[in-house]
Structure formats: structure tokens, C-alpha cells
Amino acid sequence: MPHCWRCYGVVHDQVTARVCVEYFTVYHPDVFHTQSPTLLALGWGVLATWWVCLLLGVLLAISARAGSTPKASVADLAPKVLRLLIIMALCSLAAGISGYFLQGFGMEYYATGIPKRIRPNFYADLWAHNMSYLSGFIGGLVLCVIVWRGRVREALP
């Protein structure tokens, strides 16, 4: 299941790199030494998400398999994880649109070095990324609770 979240991160970054490549080239450190939106999205999609994937993957595995209650299988988890990824994408889209129109809204210091003409796109990326992390992390924790409670409920007579 952590691979689903990582794939989401890569796909998400493929979209946002085309909205504002400067989000990756100016706002982030020059780790990959490229200006290619595709390569930046591949690199950052993995580099920036591995730790969330690891943490949520371990927690979800514990929620699904630990203890003596009936175990949840990958087939049980897949639709729930897919639902979470769709919710994350929709939250990210809404935040990106909001960020585009609200722009800095008091957070202009984030856009240091970003040309004024592309700042709406930059803020769209910034807000989309932040919401993706927030909704993914909170949603992942909620998913763990749902899976655990489902197993406990299934074990009741």
C-alpha cells in the first residue's frame, strides 16, 4: 500500500511541475540538477513522500494485521486506500485553486525569488502540496482507525 501513496506523489508532482516548475527549481534545493518538469516530478515525488509512505504504511500494516482479531487483507485495504487517494486529489485541487486566487494572503515570504507574473501558479502549487500532505496524513491516520475498528467489530460475536 505505501507504493500507492508514492505513485500518488509522483503523479501529483507531474501535474504541479507543469503548473509552476519554479516551485521545484527555486523553492526547493537543487537536488536533481535539472530543469525538466518530468524528472523533477519523478525525483521529488519519491524523495518528498517516502517518509510519509513509510510511516503510514507501517501504521496501516499494524492496524490491518496486529493482534488476534481477523486480519485485513490487501483486497480489503485497496478500495479504502483508493478512496483516500481520490479525497487527497480533490482536496489538493481545491487548495490549489484557492491558492491561485488568494495568492500569498499574507505569506509573501514563501515566494522570495519567484517572479511576480508566475506567483499565482506558485501559490497554487504550494497550497496544493500542503493540502496533499495534510489530507494524506490525517486521512491515513483515520484510515488506520477505520481498519482497526472494522477488525474489532468483525471479531465481536
Automatic annotation (TrEMBL):
Q: Which residues cross the membrane?
A: 39-63, 84-106, 126-148
Q: Which UniProt keywords apply?
A: Membrane, Transmembrane, Transmembrane helix
Protein name per UniProt: DUF3995 domain-containing protein
